[in-house]
Specification:
The chain is mostly helical. The chain is built from ten helices and no strands. The protein has helices spanning 2-27, 43-68, 71-76, 81-112, 114-118, 122-146, 159-167, 173-177, 181-196, 225-230.
Length: 241
């Protein structure tokens, strides 16, 4: 069972993520949308959406640093284990709480507003379940680990090493098998969510309009009545009939 959960399931999840994304990009481009319901209700959306999206951005960045950056690198940078743990817990807790609050508001809005509720698909319920579950389990694991209720478990010597071993196609699944239950459930919900991304509205994350951050400004100039009066009259073939 440990081999199946921590040595096989992650690759199945990634395969479903890649295959589903490619399929939707080729055959379901018109369905590649968030199915926005802003016209139905905007007050709660203006609160929940920024909380969720910005919170998730920092949550993902925190996971990238925590799982992919080896402990030897932070030691070489002069960052002690206590300082790293304090920084990770403080920033991760704030980002996770913001993301969880945001998705909570969005879920409440989806069930509270009749028009938004009617626009909800069956797959959305499954997606919201695993999304909210993954975040709450991550916060639970953080709190339990910070308060010493996991027996002093250090995820950088367990979960992180296991996760990096997946990239070499030699998963060290006993490391994950020895992790506390909260970490195991968080990872299971996370990989299940990865597999659901292409088949839900979450697929829009691959279409983030990042180019808008780097496009040149559009300059608008006000027309001066004096310049309009001084403009030469158009030639015959330039006149608009």
């Amino acid at each position: 069972m440990d081999l199946l959960l921590w040595g096989v399931l992650p690759y199945i999840s990634i395969a479903l993520l890649v295959a589903g994304t490619v399929w939707r990009a080729r055959y379901d481009q018109f369905g590649w949308t968030t199915r926005s319901t802003q016209l139905h209700e905007s007050r709660l959306l203006r609160i929940g959406s920024p909380l969720f999206h910005f919170g998730m951005l920092f949550v993902v960045l925190g996971h990238v640093v925590g799982l992919l950056v080896p402990k030897s690198w932070t030691d070489a940078a002069g960052l002690s284990d206590h300082a790293y743990h304090l920084l990770a817990v403080s920033t991760g807790a704030v980002a996770g709480a913001a993301a969880a609050a945001g998705i909570g508001i969005l879920v409440y809005r989806r069930f509270r507003v009749p028009a938004v509720r009617r626009a909800t698909l069956r797959g959305d319920h499954l997606m919201y379940t695993f999304l909210l579950g993954a975040m709450l389990l991550g916060l639970t694991a953080t709190v339990l680990n910070s308060t010493g209720m996991t027996g002093g478990y250090n995820y950088r010597d367990g979960v992180s090493l296991w996760f990096r071993s997946l990239f070499t196609l030699t998963p060290d699944y006993p490391l994950m098998a020895g992790a506390p239950l909260a970490f195991k459930l968080h990872v299971l919900f996370g990989f299940t969510l990865f597999a659901l991304i292409p088949y839900s509205r979450l697929v829009h994350m691959f279409s983030a309009p990042l180019k808008y951050l780097f496009r040149p400004y559009v300059v608008y100039r006000r027309r001066d009545p004096r310049q309009l009066a001084e403009r030469p009259s158009r030639r015959g073939w330039e006149r608009v009939s």
